[in-house]
Amino acid sequence: MFDIGWTELLIIGIVALIVVGPKDLPGMFRTLGRFTGKAKGMARDFQKAMNEAADEAGVKDVAGDLKSMTSKKGLGLDALDDVASKFEDWDPINPSSAKSGSAEKDTGLSEERAEAAKKIRDATAKSATKRKAAEKAADEDAAAKPAKKPAAKKPAPKKPAAKKPAVKKAAPKKPAAKKPAAKKPAAKPRKAAPKAESKS
After folding, report:
1. Please, are residues 114 and 103 in contact by the beta-carbon 8 Å criterion?
2. Which of 17, 121, 157, 191 has its CA 20 to 30 A from that of 148?
3. 28-65 pLDDT, tens per residue?
4. Contact 60, 54 (CB under 8 A)
C-alpha cells in the first residue's frame, strides 16, 4: 500500500522514541496496532458487501459470459494457433526434417514424387555450388592480374568554325503614308525683261 522500506521504518521508530519517550512507546504501538486492525476489518467487510451485491445483481454471470466469449476457444483462435504452429514447424527446403516422420505426411506427396523433388533439390544445390566456385575462381583471377588502365584518348584537333559574313538585316520599313499632293496653278511663262540699252 505505502511504499515504506526498512530505513523509513527505522527513522519513524527513532523519531517516535524521541517524541513519545521510551516509557509510553509500547502503549502507542499497541494502540496503533488496534487501529490498523480495525481499518483492515472495515475494508474486509466493505469488500465482502460489494461482492455480495455484485452476486445479487448477476454481475458474476455476466463476467463469466464475457470471459467465455472472449476466450481463444470462443473466438476460434485456438485453431489459428494450431495452424501457426504447423507453419512454424514446416521447412520448405527440407520437408522430411519436420517433426513428423514420413515425407508423405509432411508434404502430402507420394514417395515417387518426394524422391523426384529431392533429386531436383540436390541438382539445384550442386549447380549452385558450381556457380559459386566459378565466381570465386573468376574473382581470384581478377585479383591476381594487375588492372590495365585504358589508354588515354587524345582529343581531336578542333577545326575553326567557318565564319559567316555578318549581314545586318535592316528592320522592315513601313511605307510612309502618302499625302495627296496639292495642285499648283500652272506657271505662266515670264516675259523677258527689256534689255536696257547700254550707253556707250
Report:
1. yes
2. 157
3. 889 989 999 999 999 999 999 988 888 887 777 888 88
4. yes
C-alpha cell at 8: 523509513
Give Cα separations from 5 to 2, 46, 168 (angstroms): 9, 28, 104
Between vectors from CA 77 to CA 73 and to CA 79, what angle results, nearest 5°? Answer: 90
Report how far residue 196's alpha carbon sits from residue 189's, in angstroms, rounded to the nearest whole number.
Answer: 21
Quick check: 89 pLDDT over 80?
no
Distance CA 61, CA 67 (A): 10
- How far apart are the C-alpha atoms of 171 and 7, rounded to whole Å? 106
The reported pLDDT for the residue numbered 105 is: 46
Whether residue 200 is predicted with pLDDT greater than 50 in this model: the reply is: no
